[in-house]
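anyone else get weird line breaks when pasting these?? whatever heres mine. first is seq + C-alpha cells for prot A
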Amino acid sequence: MVNPHTNCCISMYYVYILKSKKDGMLYIGSTNNLERRLSEHNAGLIFSTKHRIPFEIIYYEAYKSEKEARKREHNLKLRSRAFAQLKKRIQESILL
C-alpha cells in the first residue's frame, strides 16, 4: 500500500477469513499480501486448505504491526468465543 501523502510504501499485515466455495468452511490466516496469499490458497499451494479450493476472502483486518496481526490470528484460532463473536458480526458476509 502506498501512502498518498508521501508516495512511500506502508507495510501492513492482515488477518483474513476465507470461505471455501466447495464446502462453505471458513479458514483464518495472516499475511502481508492478501492478493498473493489468496492466489496461493486457490492454487492449492497451502497444505491445510488445498482440498477445499476455491476460496474467497469474506473478511480481513489490517494491522501496522506484524506482531499484533499474529496475536489476533492466534486469538481467533484458539479462542472459540472470539471467533464466535466475529462470526456473529459478519454473519451476512458468511452467508453470501
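and prot B, same format (seq, then C-alpha cells)
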Amino acid sequence: MVANLFFYRLTEYCLALFWKTFLIAGVPMTWSINVNGTLRHVNVDGDTPLLWVLRDVLGMTGTKFGCGMALCGACTVHVDGVATRSCITPVDSIGTSEITTIEAIGATAAGAKIQKSWLDREVVQCGYCQSGQIMSASALLASNPHPTDSDIDDAMSGNICRCGTYVRIREAIKQAAQSNRQGG
C-alpha cells in the first residue's frame, strides 16, 4: 500500500513537471493570426510579442522596435481598429482579432487621409517613429473624425518623436480631420 502511494505520488509529480515544462514553459505552437486581411500561421511561443512575430517571423519591418516597454509608440499597430503597442502584446492574446500594420493602413479611409496629410505637411524628419505616429493618428480619426486639440493630445501622448515634429504632427491630423469635414 505504501509502495502504491509512493508510485502514485511520483507519477503525479512527473506529470506535473511535464506539463509545466512542455506546455507552460513555452514549447512553440502554431498560431493563426489575421494580419492585414490575410490569415497567417506562425510557429512561436505564445508569449512572443506581436512585434517580433511581425518583424522576425513574417518579415513585416514597417512596425518598429523602440523601447520594448510600450512607452514610445514606435511599435503601434491596430488590433481590431484600436492602437495597440505590439512590443508588449503576446501573440496568444490576439485570437481572431484583425491586426493592421503600417503596410496596410493606407487602404483604410482614415489611414489614407493621414498619410496624405503627413506628406502635405512634411511631417517626417528622421522617420523612425512615423509608422507608430501614423497608426495612432489613424486610429484617432477612425474613431473620432473631428478631434479637438485635447483629443489629439490624448491619442498621441504615448508616441515619442525624438526629432520633435509634434507641431507638424498636430497640423497633419487637423488637416486630415478637415478633409473629413469637407467630405474628402
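btw re prot B: The two ends are 82 Å apart (CA to CA). Residues 2-24 form the longest helix (23 residues).
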